[in-house]
Amino acid sequence: MGSKPVISDRGWRRGTCRAAAVVAVLALASFAGAGCGGDDAATDSEKAADAEILNAVLAQELTAVDAYTRGLPLLRGRFLAVGREFHAQGQEHVDAITKAIRGLGGETEAEASELDNPDLKSQDDFLAFAYELENAALLSYLEAAPRLATPAPRSFATSLAANHAQHLVVLRQGLGAGLAASVPEAFEPGDLPPP
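^ that's the sequence the OP posted. Answer follows.
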């Protein structure tokens, strides 16, 4: 007798949509605060430094979008839907980071890193690879947030870190972790190995 999924596809999609909506609201709130004079006190050098940091995380997001584009053909069933959702969220991140850089008066200079994934032949291979990418993205945002001088990009980076931590939970389940084992650490560090 096969085991039943802990979360139905419909319940899982509803939870994923809710989580994405929360992240979007947080990001919009941080940008709305920026439009109300929150960043006016930032110096040009602080804005330039923030644009440089955001370009670094933009490169990470471009790499993730490229990876999901290449990995989608390996995914099946509900993980195909997950991959499509993560790809779409990555593209939303790229668009929002680009707008944030321009809002700081900076130029987008980021490029995706070259992917080193010649041995990806199955869904499990890709899920493990995506786990490493999501871990790296989470770590990038955890390192970027305290270095950002302006409030809106700092809030934005923390909401993106939360989104990547949520991706890790789903990927842990895809890699065979049970519900309890897929729950993030109290302080998710961005460098935990896959289950």
